[in-house]
Amino acid sequence: MALPRVRVVTLNAALGPLDYRVPQGVVAQPGDILTVPLGPRQLIGVAWEPERLPTEEVGDNRLRPFLAKEDVSPIAEPLRRLAEWTADYYLSPLASVLRMILPGAAFASPRQLTEYRPTGSLPDRMTPQRRQAMEKIEGRQGSVRELARLADVSDGVIRGLVNHGALEAVAVEADAPFSLPDPDHAPPTLSAEQGAAADRLRSALGKGFDPILLDGVTGSGKTEVYFEAIAEALRQDRQVLVLLPEIALTEPFLSRFEKRFGCAPVSWHSDLRASERRRAWRAIADGSAKVVVGARSSLFLPYRDLGLIIVDEAHEASFKQEEGVQYHARDVAVMRGHFEKFPVILASATPAIETRHMVEIGRYDEVCLRERHAGAQLPDIEAVDLTHDPPARGNWLAPRLVRELEANLEAGEQSLLFLNRRGFAPLTLCRHCGHRFNCPNCTAWMVEHRLMHRLACHHCGHVMPPPRLCPECEEEDSLVACGPGVERIADEVQQLFPEARTAIVTSDTVWSPARAAEFVRAMEASEIDIVVGTQLVTKGYHFPNLTLVGVVDADLGLQGGDLRAAERTFQQISQVAGRAGRGERPGRVLVQTHDPDAPVIAALVSGDGPAFFEAETEARRSAAMPPFGRLAAIIVSAEDQTDAERTAAAIGHARPKIDGVAIYGPAPAPLAMLRGRHRQRLLVHAERKLDVQAVIREWLSGVDWPAKVRVAVDVDPYSFV
Ligand SMILES: Nc1ncnc2c1ncn2[C@@H]1O[C@H](COP(=O)(O)OP(=O)(O)OP(=O)(O)O)[C@@H](O)[C@H]1O
Ligand SMILES: [Zn+2]
Predict the structure, then answer these.
(1) Peptide bond connecting 30 to the previous residue in cis, omega within 30 degrees of 0
(2) CATH number of the domain that residue 551 is part of
(3) Which of 89, 161, 340, 659 is the most buried (most CB within 10 A)?
């Protein structure tokens, strides 16, 4: 008789499925999480249905027993199916998907652990490193390793601070339970329109798969309305996941949630400490974490009884993961609802063409909110033609916008200037010889950050101090900043209105939920008059006293010929415009452009979004672009240029000749070098009905390449660099 055996997928993407013997007296079912031996190592893996993962059978005599069954809930069948679907669709190893279900922190730490926090006293001897550490740590708490990483110092510096009494140990109970949100804590009084929408969402709960687009203008109360769906899920004792596009949005969400439900939800994002991660993961898996709010990585966690997913700001491109498994969290959220049979709500004021199309063909239902809450009006949008009304020399704000800022300051109202560029200037060059500062690792300019006093590459993070001499011609003080970033706009505002209180809001200044909370507090306390920010401030926030929005450069996003450039510009400007006039006073929006006749600008000004989307949709349809056709990018990269070129050429050479598929390239990717790797790209354009993954899988399986070359496939790409 054959020995009882189990097939295991480990979390190591380089390994295929492995078979183990089931030790006597133990039962192993698909989904169980096991510790298995591999040579001298121990690995975590998941038991899987053997018939779904065919592999070469190992004889009974070579079968080793697995070591242990982990004391956590097994991965349920629908989640196993979702993992397989994700791996297949995005052409990724199943192991890489499992790593998102079972992140390291889930098992690592013990029940009780030690963390450290500032005591308030400083050591007698203050080294620059110690000072840096204490500044960066601020009021935070974490393990030695976490604080060291946070402060960008060695573990030794942190230990030194502990020994000198500047940091003290705290014992943390790793698995303390979370509070339960109360669906009846403080329900709002909904308007008739909101009430009807909430009814529709509530009625979807507990009845199976039901994807719904919640399409409501900015400030219409989408959040209030989907909170009612959350309340219903809580009454049915199901778990809920709310996906947000950025962790900076988490904090305002938490406090709003707490007002409605009496306690904060469980959050999951990259800023969590290991202890918080373990605690959240365990509560998610045992079902005691009722409502989870998180970034896209929270989508794959093993919820015990998920009954609803809400994707807020569902049009946001940041839901697309650009590394590892290159999945789109919005699309996988819908698939999760399909496998686990629950409703999925996509909330947006500017839904993506892909999502609208799903509504059009009847796959998704649509619920609309057409009015702002409490009679607030949508702001007027006006174009400022920079050709006719140019800014003063060396400045970036047109006289018309400056006058409006002044009027707003006098009226004691807040203003927001939007420019999607971090730093002071995107390009630095030598006025004497024309030398440009490029990143040594990337095809990109070094961006000047005056606040941090350095030049930085936004692709790889390479930094250098701004040199006094030009490295090319050695001319002194010859470097000039070209073009504006938010810091430069903030400088201009300071010069125009020295008395105004300004704040710069970018990922450099608001990098954590705590920072975001501080920004919200300062805005609400009217400690800020003018905010200068990147896309980080365009969504989610609700500041009633914010009445003027200026878009510094509406043409910026239209450069580069990206498939979604116009759509994204429309979404971004509508979103940022939507921050204005949310309270009692009406808002106004000035959009600076060199091309007021461009269809996207004209549509924003006339308010005719539907016509713009229709024209964009038709353009996509006639070019058979997504969602009417399919795209996939194959990126070949290597440290050595010739290696990358050779493999790309071999892949190009083996290209399949199939009706309905066009293959472009290989050619150097627009970002020809990234993090020190040379990149070649092929683009696959296929008819909608074609199984493009099967074509690519078959194609690449016939080509070999050296281990130092990386070949990544990006299915449904959002980035074309
Ligand atoms: N029925 C209601 N009762 C009380 N306050 C409400 C109600 N509906 C909306 N609000 C308030 O109006 C403001 C805007 O609502 P909310 O943020 O939910 O809109 P939104 O559609 O999600 O906005 P956006 O898409 O612009 O982020 C919030 O401060 C919210 O608390
Ligand atoms: Zn770089």
Answers:
(1) no
(2) 3.40.50.300
(3) 161
- Mean pLDDT for 165-178 is 81
Q: Are 288 and 318 part of one and the same domain? A: yes
C-alpha 466/C-alpha 478 separation (Å) is 12
239 and 352 in a single domain? The answer is yes
Same structural domain, 202 and 308? yes
Average pLDDT, the chain: 91
* pTM for the predicted model, two decimal places: 0.88
Domain count, the chain: 6
In a domain, 590, yes or no: yes
pLDDT at residue 452, as a whole number: 85
Q: Whole-angstrom Cα distance, residue 91 to residue 93?
A: 7
Q: What is the ipTM of this complex?
A: 0.95
Q: Write out the residue range of the structural domain in which residue 686 sits.
A: 629-715
pLDDT at residue 110 in the model: 61
Within a domain: residue 92? yes
Of 75, 102, 129, which closes a domain? 102
| Rounded Cα gap, residues 692 and 648, in angstroms | 19
Q: Judge whether residue 1 has pLDDT over 60.
A: no
Mean pLDDT score, 685-697: 95
Residues 394 and 508 grouped into a single domain: yes
Q: Residues with beta carbon < 5 A to ion ligand 2?
A: 439, 441-442, 457, 459-460, 462
Same domain, residue pair 417 and 441: no
pLDDT in the model for residue 3: 66
Question: Which of 343, 372, 401 is a domain's end point?
Answer: 372
Do 551 and 589 form a contact (C-beta atoms < 8 A)?
yes
Ligand found nearest the CA of 442: 2
* pLDDT, position 176: 76
- List the Cα angle 270/272/274 in 5-degree steps: 110
Coil, strand, or helix at residue 118?
A: strand
**Which spans in 557-608 are helix H?**
565-577, 599-606
**Are residues 226 and 81 located together in one domain of the fold?**
no
Question: With 0-12 CB in 10 A as exposed, 13-18 as middle and 19+ as buried, what is 625?
Answer: middle
Distance between CA atoms of 401 and 220, rounded to whole angstroms?
27
Q: To test ligand 1's pocket by mutation, which of 223, 261, 524, 584 has the most ligand atoms within 8 angstroms of CB?
A: 223
482 is in an annotated binding site: no
**Cβ of residue 223 lying under 6 Å from some atom of ligand 1:** yes
Ligand 2 centroid, distance to 436 Cα (angstroms): 14
Tens of pLDDT, residue by residue over 373-402, are 888 888 889 999 999 999 999 899 999 999
pLDDT cut 70: percent of the chain above it: 98
Q: Examine the domain organization and report whether 277 and 224 are in the same domain.
A: yes
Give the mean model confidence (pLDDT) for residues 100-112.
74
In a domain, 624, yes or no: no
357 domain-assigned: yes
User: Do 507 and 609 fall within a single domain?
Assistant: yes
pLDDT of residue 111: 62
